[in-house]
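> Could you send the BolA family transcriptional regulator prediction when you get a chance?

Sure thing. Input:
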Amino acid sequence: MAMEAHDIEALIRVSFPTAKITITDLAGDGNHYAAEVIDEAFRGMNRVQQQRAVYAALQGKMDGPSGELHALALTTKAPD
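Output:
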């Protein structure tokens, strides 16, 4: 089952309530998204740590072949 952009944003927003979050549907199929998450919580974290934190926020929606979300390209950073 496909996810909608607002559902992805809502999941991320729980863990990062003040983040600037931009979700883009890359293929128009509800399965391939890009997300940009900019949040102060990322300051001092390396890119892998930042992305793991976002994937954890997705609460298993990308887990395994039956996950609701097939692909998510992440860009994460602390604000400038």
